[in-house]
Amino acid sequence: MTFDIGNMSRRNMLKSASVAALLASSAGALVAPRRAGAEDAKTVRVLSVEDPFFFSMKAMIPEFEKETGIKVELESLSYDALQTRLVSAFVAKTSDADVIAVDQMWLGQYLDNGWIISLNDYIAKDSDIDLADFIPEVLYSSNMWRGQIATLPVAAYAQGVMYRKDIFDSFGIAAPPTKASEDWTWTKYVETLKSLEGKSFGGKPLFPTVICGSQPSPITHMFTQLSASHGANWFKSFPGAPWDFSPQLTGPAWAKSVELYRQLYKLSPPEAINYVWFDAGTRFAKGDIGMFYWWTPYFYLVKNNGYMTGKKSDVMDKYATAALPKADGVAQTVSLGGWSLGVPSSSDRQDNGYAFIKWATSKATQKKMAEWPDLNFQFSDFARKSLYEDADVKAIYPYLDVQYDMMKQGNGKITRPPVPGYTAVESVLGLTLNQLLTGSEDPKTALERTNSLFESILKGNLMIPYQKESFADTLDGAKALIGTLGKA
Amino acid sequence: MHATTIRSQRALAPVRRGFVRRNLPYLLIAPSVIMLLALIAYPLLFALRSSFYFWNLQVGPEPMAFVGLDNYVQALNAFDFRAALTNTLILSVLGTAIEFGLGLTIALVLLKALPGMNVVRALLILPTTIAPIVVGFLFRYLYDPGGGLLTWVLQSLWLPVPAEGILGSPTTALAAILFVDIWQWTPFFAIVLYASLLSVPDEIIEAARLDRASAWTILMRIKLPLIRRTATIIVMLRFMQIFNTFDTVLVLTRGGPGTSTRTLGYSLYEQGLVNFNVGLVSAQTWITVLIVNIIVALYVFFAFRNEEW
To answer: Is B106 in a helix, a strand, or coil?
Structure first.
């Protein structure tokens, strides 16, 4: 075969050059991954949500890299964007990260679908994880599904009360208790708020409280604390076996909770109907709110003027925390939530992933995160018991006793059951609650309608009748698992 | 060997050239057709197939059962469907009409050789370059009941502002979202219509003026008919865009209070990216596609019934 370059047209020459360039670049691409592969073994990709814990964790990462020689590629996204990206990657079966932040509500879905791995084997082989140091209620609520520990908690949240000491002193109102007590009830809470109605403080009109009214998640997060305190259950039988997801919204505890939440809205700024999570917190930080209850990260976030600004708020030295009220004659249930870290099954560096999780959730790292001074000290969301007794940490976050007391009464599986299809029913509940705050509809009628919608959605999602295997998901079972894995 | 190769190449060359010449139009549009099929037809057909299956990623990673039209029935009977459709139609029709009217007015002003028009033209395009989600956050602060600029302006003009805030009241929330869309997209109409008006021949306008036609007559009888095709197309495009609005709704109100600002686009977002119900959201997508296409088909039919389209 001959090649007559003299007869070659310019077009053919360009074609040949292009093909050569393409081949050269392809060859480079084929070689590059192999070269990168050796480096990749010393890398861990972490995909996180940009919640308050993220910033202090990010600040500690150079220490992890120094300790282990593993380079961390950290990326953060908003809540919605994170979930969308994770699910897209899982469905496409692509390896997008080696460690992912997992909301407690996603745990069952991710594990049942085989998208994340169980950490049971890793934990069982790990002699210094100190599993017994984790608060069992937290692990049970956020990390365990069907007898598997699939994630470990990097930031655990309960709910508690924040109030203005100076306002309470000024009006001669007794401070709410820091420990749960039979006398500190929701009725008493509303009475206390009513005593602040119509008052002014520091020349500004005062609102007794503030709530979250925006649908669907913010209002549901706040309301379900109230309903759980009153003993309301979402389903006929969950988390205990056999699972029966027939909705139970027509029970008296739900109607009573709605009435109470309506009263709280009447004592709040009217625009709270549109408030999402941080709106309620930043409103308290502005200084015209007497008392409210919310997720425990707000115990430190309200020190900021605005959301995570690092600028000191007007209430920084004027507020205190207290225990959540309970309902008369009903055992208290506190809402637990937060963020955990898990390893995707698509990751080809699962060992690195577990090493990162172990480091990020360890007592030492969590303590350093708490001592990180930026943003007015922004981390006290401990899932480890020992940190609630640590004198150094307690000196920075004086409310830790209150927070720990709330954690110990927590049960996230009752307040917001992390069952498949939860978000669909939450959408309906959130909408109903939002409508009930501004409308005049009888709560009982609205809840009956919502109950029917729940039933229809759950039937549509093949949850009624439940066709998969049930699991007796109890706190005692969780404690037993912690004991077994801890001793292994 | 070399001679044979050259001979055969020369013999083939006219055949190849003839083939290319005969099929040139098809070859030229082939890349576009392939792209359209890959990017539009495939997802739509995939959604059509999925709409007949029970496939919820919260329940299982794969489609679990063929359910026929169940997803369509569920979508049409959903608690928020009627409200979402009504709000979407209100936003789309009013938004497009107001943006067109204001855009045309601005375009006519731009035609006047007033000082500073070059700067105005450059500034006009700015809102359209901002991502809707960012615009949403911007207006969230502007509407803030505790000192937002727009709330303050309304109060200063003695106009009533609901106690719950502009975004917190069912009576004003949808109008607030409409206002955001108008703020962002009126400049788009203005710029496109201005460019079209520039193409209207001066001689015709001059002749009309010599015939003592009023400015209104010139606009209605000469300018608008001459830019009708461009105007019709941008009205259609904006209508379809507003019909799919969800990002500003997500940031400003999350569909509330109640269902007062829920749109079909927001419901699609919620079913698809929050509830991950692939089957149901596929059915909703097809319902939305059908509604939009029926409206657009009617619009095109009436707009171009007397001329070639």
So the answer is: helix
Q: Quick one: which H or E segment has residue A26?
A: helix A10-40
**A274·B165 Cβ contact <8 A:** yes
Closest chain A residue to B258, measured at CA: A435
Residue B44: give the domain boundaries: 2-50
Mean pLDDT over B248-272 rounds to 93
Do residues A462 and B55 lie in contact, with contact meaning Cβ atoms separated by under 8 Å? no
Contact A153, A340 (CB under 8 A): yes
| Distance (Å, whole) CA A115 – CA B61 | 9
Domains of chain A: residue spans and CATH: 43-156+336-399+473-487 (3.40.190.10), 159-333+421-460 (3.40.190.10)
Q: What is the CATH number of the domain that holds B130?
A: 1.10.3720.10
Cβ contacts (< 8 Å) between B163 and chain A: which residues? 270-271
Chain A contacts of B277, Cβ < 8 Å? Answer: 424, 461
- As a whole number of angstroms, the distance between CA A280 and CA A278 comes to 5
Provide the pLDDT for residue B38.
87
Check B168 against A213: CB less than 8 A apart.
yes
Alpha carbon of A156: minimum distance to chain B alpha carbons (Å): 23
Q: What is the pTM of this model?
A: 0.86
Interface test with A, best of B151, B254, B271, B273 (most A CBs within 10 A): B254
Shared domain check, B92 and B27:
no
Is the reported ipTM for this assembly greater than 0.90?
no
Low-confidence ranges of chain A (pLDDT < 50): 1-36
Inter-chain touch A109–B145, beta carbons under 8 Å: no
